[in-house]
């Protein structure tokens, strides 16, 4: 049997070299209203990951949907995080977590808040793959 370890290690290094975006993966907390400021915040929100990533559009998944009385385009993206970023002992990423793009060479992505819809898991993956969508 061939040992896939060296090929996976090389693939993970190469995949990380393509991660030019900087993101924060956040577990939203409960909305809490502050009557003193009139603002609603989430003081118990937690950052699960902060660092490099690769965010790319998944144009195959783009579709028109109804939102209230208007039609909007639902855009989906694929996000890759470094393989070492999410050890299994910490909180698992789940649908509903938020991914905030802090910086990107593509200025259209910078500042976006995306919502996790799926998490891909595989023993032969070169990165953690998340399916996310733009709900703005």
Question: Sheet bearing the most strands, described?
Answer: 6 strands, antiparallel, barrel
- Classify the secondary structure makeup into a structural class: mainly beta
**Backbone shape:** globular
Helix content: under 10%
H/E series: HEEEEEEEEE
Number of strands: 9
Beta-strand percent range: over 45%
* End-to-end distance: 49 Å
Question: What is the mean predicted local confidence, pLDDT?
Answer: 86
Radius of gyration: 17 Å
Reading side by side through the largest sheet, how are the strands ordered?
Answer: 1-4-6-9-8-7
Q: Flag low-confidence runs.
A: none
With helices defined by DSSP (H or I, 4 residues minimum), what is the helix count? 1
Features:
six-stranded antiparallel β-barrel; mainly beta; two-stranded antiparallel sheet; 1 helix
Furnish the topology, listing elements before pairings.
Layout: H1 5-17, E1 21-27, E2 32-34, E3 39-41, E4 46-57, E5 63-67, E6 70-82, E7 98-103, E8 113-120, E9 127-134
Antiparallel strand pairs: 1-4, 1-7, 2-3, 4-6, 5-6, 6-9, 7-8, 8-9
Question: Could you walk me through the main structural features you see in this protein, from its secondary elements to its overall organization?
Answer:
With 136 residues, the chain is mainly beta. Helix content is 10%, strand content 48%. It is built from one helix and nine strands, in the order αβββββββββ. The chain has one helix spanning 5-17; strands at 21-27, 32-34, 39-41, 46-57, 63-67, 70-82, 98-103, 113-120, 127-134. The protein has a six-stranded antiparallel β-barrel with strand order 1-4-6-9-8-7. A two-stranded antiparallel sheet has the order 2-3. The longest helix is centred in the first third of the chain and has 13 residues, at 5-17. The protein is globular, with a radius of gyration of 17 Å.
